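Notes, p. 3: input format for complexes.
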Amino acid sequence: MFPARYRLAMSICTVCRRALVGRQRKFCSLRCKNKDTNNRNQSYAAQQTRGKSRKLRLIEQMGSMCSRCGYARNFAALEFHHKDPQSKGFQLDLRSLSNRSWGSIRAEARKCILVCANCHAEIHNSGCRLDNVDCDAAANSSISISISGSGLTGSMQRHCGSVRQKKPQLPDKT
Ligand SMILES: [Zn+2]
Ligand SMILES: [Zn+2]
Ligand SMILES: [Zn+2]
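Output follows (174 residues plus zinc ion):
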């Protein structure tokens, strides 16, 4: 580690590259700080927009409705469920829809069915039915349930959630 004084002497504003003074760490001025914030917000907004338009394209190609119940009102409530978790490469969320190549998105979507958020929750939590509560199954919905009719069983729960597979990640690109 360099002495603090030396480190500060080497620091520059991340926006305009002017040397930083005193207690400045990243920005030389409020102006540069605001500029940075605006850039971040803009690129986030651009990512969301691009992700949404690509999601819309996929949804149209997959029938524009929940394949389970026919829901077709709001595409924010339509999701992609991987039929086989073993084959899952990545989650088709707005972030990956925006950042990944269209080819890899199409390939990933072919492993999925289009379902509404309610049906998706039911698929992953079949033990939580109010008319037939299975507390054991509900508590262990990731390990011990077979979903009647869907052909999915046991360990196939939760794979569309935040559980990540350890797999080499493809570099994000457009
Ligand atoms: Zn600056
Ligand atoms: Zn799923
Ligand atoms: Zn549905």
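Residues 30-61 form the longest helix (32 residues).
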